[in-house]
Design brief:
The complex is a heterodimer of chains A (303) and B (143).
Chain A: E1 20-21, H1 23-29, E2 35-39, E3 56-57, H2 75-85, E4 92-96, H3 102-113, E5 119-122, H4 125-131, H5 162-168, E6 174-176, H6 180-184, E7 208-209, H7 225-235, E8 243-247, H8 253-264, E9 269-273, H9 276-280
Chain B: H1 3-13, H2 17-29, H3 36-39, E1 46-47, E2 56-61, E3 69-74, H4 80-93, H5 98-102, H6 120-142
Antiparallel strand pairs in B: 1-2, 2-3
Helix pairs in contact in B: 1-4, 2-4, 4-6
The chains are: A alpha/beta (303), B mainly alpha (143).
Amino acid sequence: MPVAADANQKFSAYAHPERLVTTSWLAEHLGDEGLVVVESDEDILLYDSGHIPGAVKIDWHTELNDDVTRDYVDGAGFAHLMRAKGIRREDTVVIYGDKSNWWAAYALWVFSLFGHDDVRLLDGGRDKWIAEGRELTREKPQPRSVDYPVVERDDTKIRAYKEDVLAHLGRGPLIDVRSPEEYSGERTHMPAYPEEGALRGGHIPSAASVPWAKAAAEDSTFKSRAELEEVYLAGAGLREGDDVVAYCRIGERSSHTWFVLTHLLGFEHVKNYDGSWTEWGNAVRVPIVKGTEPGDAPAQAGA
Amino acid sequence: MPSDLAEIVDDFQALSEQERLELLLEFSDSLPDLPERLADHPELLEQVVECQSPLFLTLEVADDADQTVRLYFSAPAEAPTTRGFASVLHEGLNGKPAADILAVPDDMPDALGLTRAITPLRMRGMTAMLGRIKRKINEALAA
Protein backbone atom coordinates (compact mmCIF):
# COMPACT_ATOMS: atom_id res chain seq x y z
CA MET A 1 0.00 0.00 0.00
CA PRO A 2 2.12 2.93 -1.21
CA VAL A 3 -0.11 5.69 0.14
CA ALA A 4 -1.04 5.59 3.83
CA ALA A 5 -4.67 4.84 4.69
CA ASP A 6 -7.08 7.52 5.84
CA ALA A 7 -7.21 7.26 9.63
CA ASN A 8 -10.65 8.86 9.84
CA GLN A 9 -12.51 7.88 13.00
CA LYS A 10 -15.75 6.87 11.23
CA PHE A 11 -13.91 4.35 9.07
CA SER A 12 -12.20 2.61 12.00
CA ALA A 13 -15.38 0.67 12.81
CA TYR A 14 -15.53 -0.84 9.33
CA ALA A 15 -14.00 -4.24 8.61
CA HIS A 16 -11.61 -2.78 6.02
CA PRO A 17 -11.27 0.95 6.75
CA GLU A 18 -8.40 1.22 4.27
CA ARG A 19 -10.95 0.88 1.43
CA LEU A 20 -12.36 4.37 1.99
CA VAL A 21 -10.95 7.87 1.96
CA THR A 22 -12.61 11.14 2.94
CA THR A 23 -12.83 14.18 0.71
CA SER A 24 -10.43 16.06 3.01
CA TRP A 25 -7.91 13.20 2.87
CA LEU A 26 -8.07 13.21 -0.91
CA ALA A 27 -7.70 16.98 -1.12
CA GLU A 28 -4.52 16.70 0.97
CA HIS A 29 -3.07 13.80 -1.01
CA LEU A 30 -3.80 14.94 -4.57
CA GLY A 31 -0.57 14.65 -6.51
CA ASP A 32 1.05 12.13 -4.13
CA GLU A 33 3.43 9.75 -5.80
CA GLY A 34 1.71 6.37 -6.22
CA LEU A 35 -1.85 7.75 -6.07
CA VAL A 36 -4.14 7.79 -9.10
CA VAL A 37 -7.64 9.25 -8.87
CA VAL A 38 -10.30 7.81 -11.17
CA GLU A 39 -13.77 9.18 -11.91
CA SER A 40 -16.41 6.73 -13.09
CA ASP A 41 -19.94 8.04 -13.68
CA GLU A 42 -23.19 7.06 -15.19
CA ASP A 43 -23.32 10.24 -17.27
CA ILE A 44 -20.41 9.98 -19.67
CA LEU A 45 -20.04 13.75 -20.05
CA LEU A 46 -19.99 14.49 -16.34
CA TYR A 47 -16.21 14.08 -16.02
CA ASP A 48 -15.68 16.38 -18.98
CA SER A 49 -17.91 19.04 -17.44
CA GLY A 50 -15.51 19.27 -14.48
CA HIS A 51 -13.58 16.78 -12.34
CA ILE A 52 -11.18 16.57 -9.40
CA PRO A 53 -7.82 17.96 -10.54
CA GLY A 54 -5.60 15.20 -11.88
CA ALA A 55 -8.36 12.57 -12.02
CA VAL A 56 -8.58 10.30 -15.07
CA LYS A 57 -11.89 9.00 -16.37
CA ILE A 58 -12.89 5.38 -16.79
CA ASP A 59 -16.07 4.75 -18.76
CA TRP A 60 -17.79 1.63 -17.42
CA HIS A 61 -19.75 1.18 -20.61
CA THR A 62 -17.07 1.48 -23.28
CA GLU A 63 -13.86 0.73 -21.35
CA LEU A 64 -14.63 -1.98 -18.78
CA ASN A 65 -16.85 -4.06 -21.04
CA ASP A 66 -15.70 -6.15 -23.95
CA ASP A 67 -16.88 -4.82 -27.30
CA VAL A 68 -18.55 -7.96 -28.57
CA THR A 69 -19.00 -10.38 -25.67
CA ARG A 70 -21.32 -9.54 -22.81
CA ASP A 71 -18.38 -9.69 -20.47
CA TYR A 72 -15.63 -7.60 -19.00
CA VAL A 73 -12.34 -6.99 -20.74
CA ASP A 74 -9.76 -9.77 -20.40
CA GLY A 75 -6.32 -9.56 -18.82
CA ALA A 76 -4.71 -8.03 -21.89
CA GLY A 77 -7.57 -5.54 -22.25
CA PHE A 78 -7.34 -4.50 -18.60
CA ALA A 79 -3.57 -4.09 -18.80
CA HIS A 80 -4.03 -1.95 -21.90
CA LEU A 81 -6.62 0.20 -20.11
CA MET A 82 -4.42 0.64 -17.03
CA ARG A 83 -1.43 1.68 -19.13
CA ALA A 84 -3.59 4.19 -21.00
CA LYS A 85 -4.73 5.70 -17.69
CA GLY A 86 -1.23 5.81 -16.20
CA ILE A 87 -2.00 3.25 -13.49
CA ARG A 88 0.68 0.83 -12.26
CA ARG A 89 -0.09 -2.45 -10.54
CA GLU A 90 1.28 -1.16 -7.22
CA ASP A 91 -0.52 2.19 -7.32
CA THR A 92 -3.19 3.26 -4.88
CA VAL A 93 -6.34 3.95 -6.89
CA VAL A 94 -9.11 6.13 -5.44
CA ILE A 95 -12.36 5.96 -7.40
CA TYR A 96 -15.29 8.35 -7.13
CA GLY A 97 -18.42 9.03 -9.14
CA ASP A 98 -21.99 10.26 -9.34
CA LYS A 99 -25.11 8.80 -7.72
CA SER A 100 -23.54 7.80 -4.38
CA ASN A 101 -20.69 6.01 -6.17
CA TRP A 102 -22.76 3.37 -8.03
CA TRP A 103 -20.46 3.28 -11.01
CA ALA A 104 -17.41 3.97 -8.90
CA ALA A 105 -18.22 0.85 -6.85
CA TYR A 106 -18.79 -1.05 -10.08
CA ALA A 107 -15.37 0.01 -11.38
CA LEU A 108 -13.80 -0.93 -8.04
CA TRP A 109 -15.39 -4.35 -8.26
CA VAL A 110 -13.96 -4.86 -11.77
CA PHE A 111 -10.52 -3.78 -10.50
CA SER A 112 -10.99 -6.44 -7.82
CA LEU A 113 -11.69 -9.12 -10.45
CA PHE A 114 -8.15 -8.43 -11.64
CA GLY A 115 -6.80 -8.46 -8.10
CA HIS A 116 -5.62 -4.85 -8.14
CA ASP A 117 -4.45 -4.68 -4.56
CA ASP A 118 -5.09 -1.15 -3.35
CA VAL A 119 -8.29 0.34 -4.69
CA ARG A 120 -10.47 2.64 -2.58
CA LEU A 121 -13.66 4.67 -2.83
CA LEU A 122 -14.04 8.35 -2.04
CA ASP A 123 -16.72 8.35 0.69
CA GLY A 124 -19.57 10.54 -0.57
CA GLY A 125 -18.27 10.53 -4.13
CA ARG A 126 -18.57 13.38 -6.55
CA ASP A 127 -21.60 14.94 -4.88
CA LYS A 128 -19.87 15.45 -1.55
CA TRP A 129 -16.75 16.89 -3.16
CA ILE A 130 -18.89 19.43 -4.99
CA ALA A 131 -21.16 20.14 -2.00
CA GLU A 132 -18.05 21.12 -0.06
CA GLY A 133 -17.12 23.60 -2.75
CA ARG A 134 -13.87 21.83 -3.59
CA GLU A 135 -11.93 22.47 -6.75
CA LEU A 136 -13.03 21.09 -10.11
CA THR A 137 -11.27 21.46 -13.42
CA ARG A 138 -11.89 20.67 -17.06
CA GLU A 139 -8.20 20.20 -17.67
CA LYS A 140 -7.43 16.60 -18.59
CA PRO A 141 -4.26 15.08 -17.21
CA GLN A 142 -1.77 13.49 -19.56
CA PRO A 143 -1.30 10.04 -18.03
CA ARG A 144 2.35 9.13 -17.55
CA SER A 145 3.80 6.25 -19.47
CA VAL A 146 3.65 3.16 -17.26
CA ASP A 147 3.62 -0.58 -17.52
CA TYR A 148 0.91 -2.88 -16.15
CA PRO A 149 1.22 -6.66 -16.20
CA VAL A 150 -1.31 -8.89 -17.94
CA VAL A 151 -3.20 -10.50 -15.07
CA GLU A 152 -5.98 -12.95 -15.83
CA ARG A 153 -9.35 -12.03 -14.39
CA ASP A 154 -10.45 -14.24 -11.50
CA ASP A 155 -14.24 -14.55 -11.60
CA THR A 156 -14.43 -17.36 -9.07
CA LYS A 157 -14.40 -15.40 -5.81
CA ILE A 158 -16.57 -12.31 -6.20
CA ARG A 159 -18.60 -12.87 -9.36
CA ALA A 160 -21.65 -15.11 -9.75
CA TYR A 161 -23.00 -16.45 -13.03
CA LYS A 162 -26.59 -17.56 -13.53
CA GLU A 163 -25.62 -21.21 -12.93
CA ASP A 164 -23.94 -20.23 -9.66
CA VAL A 165 -27.12 -18.51 -8.53
CA LEU A 166 -29.23 -21.54 -9.45
CA ALA A 167 -26.90 -23.73 -7.38
CA HIS A 168 -27.02 -21.18 -4.56
CA LEU A 169 -30.83 -21.32 -4.22
CA GLY A 170 -31.77 -22.73 -0.84
CA ARG A 171 -28.14 -22.86 0.26
CA GLY A 172 -27.36 -19.24 1.00
CA PRO A 173 -28.92 -15.80 1.20
CA LEU A 174 -29.58 -13.56 -1.77
CA ILE A 175 -29.90 -9.80 -1.59
CA ASP A 176 -32.00 -7.98 -4.18
CA VAL A 177 -30.92 -4.33 -4.15
CA ARG A 178 -33.46 -2.94 -6.64
CA SER A 179 -36.42 -0.74 -5.79
CA PRO A 180 -39.43 -2.33 -4.05
CA GLU A 181 -41.46 -1.96 -7.28
CA GLU A 182 -38.90 -3.92 -9.26
CA TYR A 183 -38.67 -6.55 -6.51
CA SER A 184 -42.42 -7.17 -6.39
CA GLY A 185 -42.65 -7.32 -10.16
CA GLU A 186 -44.88 -4.30 -10.41
CA ARG A 187 -42.33 -2.95 -12.84
CA THR A 188 -39.23 -4.34 -14.48
CA HIS A 189 -37.12 -1.23 -14.42
CA MET A 190 -36.09 1.48 -12.01
CA PRO A 191 -38.52 4.25 -11.13
CA ALA A 192 -37.96 7.07 -13.64
CA TYR A 193 -35.78 4.86 -15.81
CA PRO A 194 -36.95 3.53 -19.14
CA GLU A 195 -37.70 -0.10 -19.78
CA GLU A 196 -34.57 -2.16 -20.21
CA GLY A 197 -36.06 -5.24 -21.68
CA ALA A 198 -36.78 -7.80 -18.95
CA LEU A 199 -39.69 -9.98 -20.01
CA ARG A 200 -40.96 -10.71 -16.52
CA GLY A 201 -41.11 -8.78 -13.29
CA GLY A 202 -40.35 -10.19 -9.86
CA HIS A 203 -37.31 -11.47 -7.98
CA ILE A 204 -35.13 -14.52 -7.51
CA PRO A 205 -36.81 -16.95 -5.07
CA SER A 206 -35.79 -16.42 -1.42
CA ALA A 207 -33.99 -13.10 -2.12
CA ALA A 208 -34.35 -10.45 0.58
CA SER A 209 -35.23 -6.96 -0.58
CA VAL A 210 -32.65 -4.41 0.55
CA PRO A 211 -32.60 -1.43 -1.83
CA TRP A 212 -29.01 -0.25 -2.25
CA ALA A 213 -29.81 3.23 -0.94
CA LYS A 214 -30.34 1.84 2.55
CA ALA A 215 -26.55 1.79 2.80
CA ALA A 216 -26.15 5.44 1.86
CA ALA A 217 -26.62 8.53 3.99
CA GLU A 218 -28.18 11.78 2.76
CA ASP A 219 -24.81 13.19 1.72
CA SER A 220 -23.98 10.08 -0.39
CA THR A 221 -21.48 8.75 2.19
CA PHE A 222 -21.83 5.25 3.59
CA LYS A 223 -23.81 4.85 6.78
CA SER A 224 -22.01 3.95 9.99
CA ARG A 225 -21.18 0.33 10.77
CA ALA A 226 -23.91 0.15 13.41
CA GLU A 227 -26.50 1.46 10.95
CA LEU A 228 -25.35 -0.99 8.29
CA GLU A 229 -25.59 -3.89 10.72
CA GLU A 230 -29.13 -2.84 11.49
CA VAL A 231 -30.00 -2.99 7.78
CA TYR A 232 -28.21 -6.17 6.72
CA LEU A 233 -28.03 -8.29 9.89
CA ALA A 234 -31.11 -7.36 11.88
CA GLY A 235 -33.14 -6.31 8.81
CA ALA A 236 -32.20 -8.81 6.10
CA GLY A 237 -31.12 -11.63 8.41
CA LEU A 238 -27.55 -12.06 7.19
CA ARG A 239 -25.29 -13.89 9.62
CA GLU A 240 -21.54 -13.87 10.02
CA GLY A 241 -19.88 -16.31 7.65
CA ASP A 242 -22.76 -16.38 5.17
CA ASP A 243 -22.14 -16.91 1.48
CA VAL A 244 -24.09 -14.02 -0.06
CA VAL A 245 -25.09 -13.22 -3.63
CA ALA A 246 -26.22 -9.67 -4.47
CA TYR A 247 -27.91 -8.62 -7.69
CA CYS A 248 -29.84 -5.72 -9.23
CA ARG A 249 -30.65 -4.94 -12.86
CA ILE A 250 -27.25 -4.89 -14.54
CA GLY A 251 -24.89 -5.31 -11.60
CA GLU A 252 -23.95 -1.72 -10.85
CA ARG A 253 -26.15 -1.01 -7.83
CA SER A 254 -25.30 -4.45 -6.44
CA SER A 255 -21.58 -3.59 -6.70
CA HIS A 256 -22.35 -0.87 -4.17
CA THR A 257 -23.93 -3.47 -1.88
CA TRP A 258 -21.09 -5.92 -2.56
CA PHE A 259 -18.67 -3.22 -1.40
CA VAL A 260 -20.68 -2.60 1.78
CA LEU A 261 -20.95 -6.28 2.69
CA THR A 262 -17.35 -7.13 1.84
CA HIS A 263 -15.34 -4.13 2.91
CA LEU A 264 -17.49 -2.40 5.49
CA LEU A 265 -19.17 -5.34 7.23
CA GLY A 266 -16.42 -7.90 6.61
CA PHE A 267 -18.32 -10.74 4.89
CA GLU A 268 -15.67 -12.86 3.19
CA HIS A 269 -17.83 -14.67 0.66
CA VAL A 270 -19.94 -12.16 -1.26
CA LYS A 271 -20.55 -12.44 -4.97
CA ASN A 272 -22.04 -9.90 -7.32
CA TYR A 273 -24.36 -11.45 -9.92
CA ASP A 274 -23.73 -8.97 -12.73
CA GLY A 275 -26.11 -10.71 -15.15
CA SER A 276 -28.76 -9.64 -12.65
CA TRP A 277 -32.40 -9.15 -13.56
CA THR A 278 -31.75 -8.36 -17.23
CA GLU A 279 -30.51 -11.94 -17.54
CA TRP A 280 -32.61 -13.74 -14.91
CA GLY A 281 -35.87 -12.05 -15.93
CA ASN A 282 -35.39 -13.26 -19.50
CA ALA A 283 -33.76 -16.65 -18.97
CA VAL A 284 -35.54 -19.85 -19.94
CA ARG A 285 -36.52 -22.28 -17.17
CA VAL A 286 -35.42 -20.28 -14.16
CA PRO A 287 -37.87 -19.69 -11.33
CA ILE A 288 -39.05 -16.28 -10.21
CA VAL A 289 -41.28 -15.03 -7.42
CA LYS A 290 -43.76 -12.19 -7.81
CA GLY A 291 -44.94 -10.04 -4.93
CA THR A 292 -43.43 -8.60 -1.81
CA GLU A 293 -42.56 -11.86 -0.01
CA PRO A 294 -39.16 -13.51 -0.64
CA GLY A 295 -40.76 -16.87 -1.41
CA ASP A 296 -39.20 -20.31 -1.07
CA ALA A 297 -36.22 -21.56 -2.99
CA PRO A 298 -37.17 -24.52 -5.18
CA ALA A 299 -35.92 -27.93 -4.06
CA GLN A 300 -32.49 -28.68 -5.50
CA ALA A 301 -32.14 -31.70 -7.74
CA GLY A 302 -30.08 -34.21 -5.78
CA ALA A 303 -30.12 -32.08 -2.66
CA MET B 1 -35.49 18.19 -41.36
CA PRO B 2 -35.06 21.94 -40.64
CA SER B 3 -31.75 23.12 -42.09
CA ASP B 4 -30.35 24.24 -38.73
CA LEU B 5 -30.85 20.76 -37.29
CA ALA B 6 -29.52 19.13 -40.45
CA GLU B 7 -26.37 21.25 -40.14
CA ILE B 8 -25.88 20.18 -36.52
CA VAL B 9 -26.24 16.53 -37.55
CA ASP B 10 -23.66 17.10 -40.30
CA ASP B 11 -21.31 18.71 -37.79
CA PHE B 12 -21.53 15.67 -35.53
CA GLN B 13 -21.12 13.28 -38.43
CA ALA B 14 -17.90 14.99 -39.54
CA LEU B 15 -16.21 14.38 -36.20
CA SER B 16 -14.52 11.47 -34.45
CA GLU B 17 -16.41 9.88 -31.58
CA GLN B 18 -14.33 11.70 -28.96
CA GLU B 19 -14.86 15.02 -30.72
CA ARG B 20 -18.59 14.35 -30.88
CA LEU B 21 -18.66 14.09 -27.10
CA GLU B 22 -16.75 17.36 -26.83
CA LEU B 23 -19.26 19.02 -29.14
CA LEU B 24 -22.13 17.63 -27.07
CA LEU B 25 -20.50 19.17 -23.98
CA GLU B 26 -20.35 22.54 -25.77
CA PHE B 27 -24.05 22.23 -26.49
CA SER B 28 -24.64 21.33 -22.86
CA ASP B 29 -22.84 24.49 -21.77
CA SER B 30 -24.85 26.68 -24.11
CA LEU B 31 -28.37 25.53 -23.20
CA PRO B 32 -30.13 28.82 -22.43
CA ASP B 33 -31.67 29.36 -19.00
CA LEU B 34 -35.44 29.37 -18.74
CA PRO B 35 -37.09 32.77 -19.01
CA GLU B 36 -38.11 34.09 -15.61
CA ARG B 37 -41.81 33.45 -16.07
CA LEU B 38 -41.06 29.71 -16.46
CA ALA B 39 -38.13 29.48 -14.06
CA ASP B 40 -40.43 30.71 -11.30
CA HIS B 41 -43.12 28.21 -12.27
CA PRO B 42 -41.61 24.74 -12.74
CA GLU B 43 -45.13 23.28 -12.70
CA LEU B 44 -45.62 24.71 -16.18
CA LEU B 45 -42.97 22.31 -17.49
CA GLU B 46 -43.40 18.62 -18.15
CA GLN B 47 -40.84 16.02 -17.08
CA VAL B 48 -39.59 13.59 -19.69
CA VAL B 49 -39.49 10.57 -17.38
CA GLU B 50 -37.79 8.40 -19.99
CA CYS B 51 -34.61 10.40 -19.44
CA GLN B 52 -32.24 8.98 -16.83
CA SER B 53 -31.67 12.45 -15.43
CA PRO B 54 -34.24 15.14 -14.65
CA LEU B 55 -35.28 16.87 -17.86
CA PHE B 56 -38.20 19.25 -18.07
CA LEU B 57 -39.58 20.87 -21.17
CA THR B 58 -42.43 22.90 -22.48
CA LEU B 59 -43.24 24.70 -25.69
CA GLU B 60 -45.50 27.36 -27.15
CA VAL B 61 -46.99 27.40 -30.63
CA ALA B 62 -47.52 30.94 -31.94
CA ASP B 63 -50.77 32.03 -33.54
CA ASP B 64 -49.06 32.97 -36.82
CA ALA B 65 -49.16 31.54 -40.32
CA ASP B 66 -46.13 29.31 -39.68
CA GLN B 67 -47.36 28.17 -36.27
CA THR B 68 -43.91 29.03 -34.99
CA VAL B 69 -42.75 26.87 -32.07
CA ARG B 70 -40.79 28.14 -29.06
CA LEU B 71 -39.01 25.47 -27.03
CA TYR B 72 -37.97 25.65 -23.37
CA PHE B 73 -35.79 23.10 -21.56
CA SER B 74 -34.48 22.68 -18.06
CA ALA B 75 -31.90 20.10 -16.94
CA PRO B 76 -29.39 20.24 -14.08
CA ALA B 77 -25.67 20.68 -14.59
CA GLU B 78 -25.13 17.14 -13.21
CA ALA B 79 -26.83 15.78 -16.33
CA PRO B 80 -24.60 17.08 -19.12
CA THR B 81 -25.54 14.49 -21.75
CA THR B 82 -29.23 15.17 -21.25
CA ARG B 83 -28.59 18.92 -21.29
CA GLY B 84 -26.46 18.55 -24.39
CA PHE B 85 -29.16 16.82 -26.32
CA ALA B 86 -31.81 19.29 -25.15
CA SER B 87 -29.53 22.04 -26.39
CA VAL B 88 -29.12 20.36 -29.80
CA LEU B 89 -32.90 20.26 -30.15
CA HIS B 90 -33.19 23.83 -28.95
CA GLU B 91 -30.66 25.19 -31.39
CA GLY B 92 -31.96 23.06 -34.26
CA LEU B 93 -35.69 23.47 -33.76
CA ASN B 94 -36.48 26.60 -31.75
CA GLY B 95 -38.41 29.16 -33.78
CA LYS B 96 -39.24 26.73 -36.56
CA PRO B 97 -42.70 26.10 -38.04
CA ALA B 98 -44.66 23.34 -36.31
CA ALA B 99 -44.93 21.32 -39.53
CA ASP B 100 -41.14 21.26 -39.94
CA ILE B 101 -40.61 19.94 -36.45
CA LEU B 102 -43.29 17.29 -36.85
CA ALA B 103 -41.46 16.13 -39.99
CA VAL B 104 -38.17 15.46 -38.15
CA PRO B 105 -37.49 11.70 -38.36
CA ASP B 106 -38.11 9.93 -35.04
CA ASP B 107 -34.70 8.29 -35.18
CA MET B 108 -32.90 11.62 -35.65
CA PRO B 109 -30.96 11.15 -32.32
CA ASP B 110 -29.22 8.11 -33.84
CA ALA B 111 -27.89 10.33 -36.62
CA LEU B 112 -25.62 12.18 -34.18
CA GLY B 113 -23.36 9.13 -34.17
CA LEU B 114 -23.32 8.72 -30.39
CA THR B 115 -24.94 5.30 -30.12
CA ARG B 116 -21.69 3.54 -29.30
CA ALA B 117 -20.54 6.07 -26.72
CA ILE B 118 -23.88 6.51 -25.00
CA THR B 119 -25.84 3.63 -23.50
CA PRO B 120 -29.02 2.47 -25.27
CA LEU B 121 -30.98 3.56 -22.22
CA ARG B 122 -29.84 7.15 -22.56
CA MET B 123 -30.34 7.16 -26.34
CA ARG B 124 -33.92 6.12 -25.69
CA GLY B 125 -34.31 9.08 -23.34
CA MET B 126 -33.19 11.37 -26.14
CA THR B 127 -35.59 9.84 -28.60
CA ALA B 128 -38.32 10.29 -25.99
CA MET B 129 -37.51 13.99 -25.75
CA LEU B 130 -38.15 14.46 -29.46
CA GLY B 131 -41.30 12.34 -29.24
CA ARG B 132 -42.55 14.46 -26.37
CA ILE B 133 -41.99 17.66 -28.33
CA LYS B 134 -43.98 16.32 -31.28
CA ARG B 135 -46.79 15.16 -29.02
CA LYS B 136 -47.03 18.52 -27.31
CA ILE B 137 -47.10 20.30 -30.67
CA ASN B 138 -49.94 18.06 -31.82
CA GLU B 139 -51.82 18.74 -28.61
CA ALA B 140 -51.31 22.49 -29.01
CA LEU B 141 -52.50 22.41 -32.63
CA ALA B 142 -55.59 20.39 -31.72
CA ALA B 143 -56.53 22.74 -28.87
